[in-house]
Amino acid sequence: MSIQARQTAQQRLVLAPNVTLALEVLRMPAMELQMFLRLQVEDNPLLEVEEWEASESDTSPADTDSRQQQEEASTPDLEEDWLAHWREGAGEERSEDNRGGEDRGPVKPESFHESLRMQLGCQPLSAEERRLGDALIDRLDEHGYLEGTLEAIAEELKVNAEWLEAALRVIQRLDPPGVGARDLRECLMLQLEQSDQRDGLAYRILRDHFPLFAQRQLAALAKATGANPRQIEEAYARLKRLNPKPGRIFSGELPPSIIPDLVVVKREKHYDVELSDQSVPRITISRAYQRMLKHPDTPADAREFLANKFRKAAWLIRAIDERNATLLAIGRCLISLQGEFLEQGPKALNPLTQSQVAGLIGRHASTVSRAITGKSLDTPYGVFRLEQLFASNIPQKTAASHVSDAQIKSEIERLVAEEEAHRPLSDEALARQLAQRHITVARRTIAKYRTSLKILPAHLRRRRL
């Protein structure tokens, strides 16, 4: 067997660094982008961040003049600062005592979803597994439950459902215990699994006899499991101590920290969308370092270093501007198409797809999908994820008729709230009730929506008189 050298030609798509940066910045929600920008400012001496406390709207002209004078006065000392930075860049060790006393303690998660992302980042995952994990975290409600079915999410993400199932199992191993469940039964079982109680009576009750547990039929549980009444009572008490809404533990320990990327503003005759004041800090390029870059006495190696940092700073600022422009275009398009939502709430959402919005704003559908992931909009009805403003179109018998999945969910919630306690509506009955309101939905679709709304089946909702 001989070893031969062969030359072959291949075509590969390689994104330029500035394009990769722009796509990554577009994907980041407000809090993640804030952390990313702070890291960039620490790494790049040409970048300066304007904190929200010193925004232009809160700064008087006298303060602006004073700041400019201070900047000019500090320019002669810039050479010493630059030399110190250049020595670090050249490989000299930095003294531990020379860090300005900055306290770099552990980062405290600011929200339920942020905590999960931080934990996910510590897992040994591939890039694709991490992407699917992030997508699932974005689809958890405030209680910690997964919104929608894995099949629907897999179809939306264009991935294999088995891969998504594996990613969900990773999420379900994170804290708080029970997170990532699809229903109450799975939530409680996950909590017992994390405390190594798979072999206990409480776990068997959930696994094999959950309807009896939900209906509080302790005698029937004792007969079904072969346990005595006292053991059943102890297991029942153990289950009642579990947390049915694991995501809510953050509401009492941490302040509300959802920073919406966009805000709906009421004008005199219409609604408008603006970028949130606190979503992204303003990044600028240091004028002092720009002057040094142009100065003829600056050493060649220093000028090369500055030029490289200047180029990266310009890429970052351009990426942020493109992100903001894309988000504004999407937000304004959404409120123009979902005007009834701003007046009547989520039940009035009209059918809308990402492809429709992409065509209207002149972007690719993949750009819209990347831009809305993890982003939120502050509306008169609270903060909503941008993804929630896209409603599926459910075809009806009448050709000109259409209804959104949000409208169907709202009707299901209303019908269940009005049902008789001892005669709850089955999925088939709900379908008939909707048909009387000229909304045609299959029974299986009703079951899917009911599950996503965390509504128990009819036999578990029944209350005896």
3D structure, described in words:
Helix content is 54%, strand content 7%. It is of the alpha+beta class. The chain folds into three domains: 112-250, Orthogonal Bundle (Arc Repressor Mutant, subunit A), CATH 1.10.10; 262-389, no CATH class; 394-461, Arc Repressor Mutant, subunit A. The strands form three sheets. A four-stranded mixed β-sheet has the order 3-2-5-6. Helix 10 crosses helix 11 (218-225) and helix 10 crosses helix 12 (229-240). The longest helix is centred in the C-terminal third of the chain and has 38 residues, at 300-337. The radius of gyration is 28 Å and the shape is globular. The termini are far apart. 23% of the residues are buried.
Keywords:
single chain, 465 residues, alpha+beta, Arc Repressor Mutant, subunit A, 4-stranded mixed sheet, two-stranded antiparallel sheet, 8 strands
